[in-house]
Design brief:
Length: 101
C-alpha cells in the first residue's frame, strides 16, 4: 500500500472553494478596527474595592437559595443588605454615596 500524499492547508481550502468563485488571489485590505472607547470612570472592578465575607455554610446556602428564588445575584442581595444597614444607622445610602464627587 502506497503512502498517501500530505495535504496542505492551501490545497484543502482550494478544493473547498468552487472554481467559479476562486478569485485571482487578491488580498483585500480591511480597515483597522477601532479600539473600544474606554469608560472614563473605569469598570466596576477597577473602581471598586474588594471585600471578603466569611459565611457559615447554612448562611451561605440560605443566601444562595434566596438569590436563586428571586433570580438575582448574591452581590445584589449584599448591596441591598448594606443599604438597610446604612438606613438603620442613619448613614447615606449607596445611591447617595454614588452621587457625591
Amino acid at each position: 500500500m502506497s503512502k498517501q500524499p500530505r495535504l496542505s492547508l492551501a490545497s484543502i481550502v482550494a478544493s473547498a472553494v468552487p472554481t467559479s468563485q476562486r478569485g485571482g488571489g487578491e488580498i483585500v485590505p480591511l480597515p483597522p478596527a477601532k479600539p473600544a472607547e474606554p469608560n472614563p470612570r473605569g469598570t466596576l472592578k477597577e473602581r471598586a474595592k474588594q471585600l471578603s465575607v466569611y459565611l457559615e455554610p447554612p448562611v451561605h446556602d440560605q443566601l444562595r437559595d434566596i438569590a436563586y428564588t428571586e433570580r438575582t445575584k448574591i452581590h445584589q442581595l449584599m448591596l441591598e443588605a448594606l443599604d438597610l444597614l446604612f438606613k438603620a444607622r442613619g448613614a447615606l445610602s449607596i445611591a447617595q454615596l454614588k452621587e457625591q464627587p
